[in-house]
Amino acid sequence: MTTTPNQDLELTSAAIEERILGFLAERTKTSWEPEADLFESGTVSSLFAMELVVFLEGAFDIEIAGPDLKLVNFRTARVMVGLVERLRAEEAEDGRG
């Protein structure tokens, strides 16, 4: 299903999590729990974090920059959901979203 940015404004936490987990499963060929530490597992490396940044920015129309580019923000799907929600809210408040 293709969505427009306006339709994406209504994304729920569960929908964001589902998209992130889908991306992770596709890229790593592994099923992930929302709280699983991706990097501690040894399945992905810190270089994979850059793929996560590109995916999150494109999938959710956000910009991840500066202090948000910390590995801690990409450790689990659940943490990434929080990051996406916060950045979407900030961008909407600033009139960018």
Search tags:
single chain; 97 residues; mainly alpha; Non-ribosomal Peptide Synthetase Peptidyl Carrier Protein, Chain A; globular; disordered N terminus
Q: How does this structure look, described?
A:
- This protein has one domain: Orthogonal Bundle (Non-ribosomal Peptide Synthetase Peptidyl Carrier Protein, Chain A).
- 52% of the residues lie in helices and 0% in strands.
- It contains four helices and no strands.
- Helix 2 crosses helix 3 (48-60) and helix 2 (13-28) packs across helix 4.
- The longest helix is centred in the last third of the chain and has 17 residues, at 77-93.
- Mean pLDDT is 89; it is low at 1-7.
CATH class label: Mainly Alpha
The third-level CATH topology is: Non-ribosomal Peptide Synthetase Peptidyl Carrier Protein, Chain A
Overall geometric form: globular
Beta-strand segment tally? 0
Overall number of domains: 1
Question: Hey, roughly how much beta strand do the residues contain?
Answer: under 5%
- First-residue to last-residue Cα separation: 21 Å
Instruction: Count every helix, treating DSSP H or I runs of 4 or more residues as helices.
Output: 4
Rg value = 13 Å
Alpha-beta classification: mainly alpha
Q: State the helicity in percent bands.
A: 40-55%
Poorly predicted runs: 1-7
Q: Can you give the mean pLDDT?
A: 89
Protein name: Acyl carrier protein
InterPro entries: ACP-like_sf, PP-bd_ACP
Domain Carrier: 7-88
